Amino acid sequence: MWTLLLIGAILLVVAVKAFHWLQARATIPSLHTRYVLITGCDSGFGRRLAQRLDNMGCHVFAACLTSSSVTELSGESSERLKALQMDVTKDEDIERALREVEAALPENKGLWAIVNNAGIFGASGVAEMMTRKDFLAPLEVNLLGMTQVTRMFLPLVRRERGRVVNTTSVVGRFALSPAPYVASKFAAAGYTDMLRRELLRHPISVHSIQPGAFAATNLFDTENIRKSVTRVFQATPPHVQQVYGHDFVEKCE
């Protein structure tokens, strides 16, 4: 019995090693003919992915929130990367970006992929202290920004039989804190699962990336979180503050 278990364990290790070996050597053909749109390229995952794909020879439309990020990213990249300004909470911005992308694409060419990466953390604190505005802010970016970018650019993805890649979060599956961010990520995960089913009969695949807490991104900046907790607590009615204690902010650090 122990011999069989040992053999099984060895075979499993060999299979895993072989899988990783093959995966590391997998290549995507004709990357120089692929066009990808990425949102949230001001910093973090979006910026790094845009630069990585650019270095690999892919054509990238890197959507940034600020004009300074557009200028900075353009100066750091090759001519294959086109940085453009887009606020995913504004339909007019998305429509303008769509026109820019369509004008830049070769004739009869579409998008190989959309990467919906734009996201914000929003207010920090406990759910009882959160206002409607606190919940709406991350929903506008993390969910509705994703849905509207996908809706408007999907015809270009269909043209290439491409894919939609949505950056959600591990907290979109396992509820942690804070409530507005978690709720927006659960919603984004649900939207992604639904979209995948709806597009089963179309030549479009839908994927979800669920990162944990990466300190290298600006999303989980501890100083910003501390300021947010302080603001939320100070705006909370005194009788609720009393329940949680006036040292609530210090406890959260």
TrEMBL record:
GO terms for biological process: steroid metabolic process. Residues 1-18 form the signal peptide. It comes from the Eukaryota. One of its GO terms (molecular function) is oxidoreductase activity. Gene3D superfamilies: NAD(P)-binding Rossmann-like Domain (3.40.50.720). InterPro entries: NAD(P)-bd_dom_sf, SDR_fam. Keywords: Signal. Belongs to the short-chain dehydrogenases/reductases (SDR) family. This is Uncharacterized protein. It comes from Littorina saxatilis.
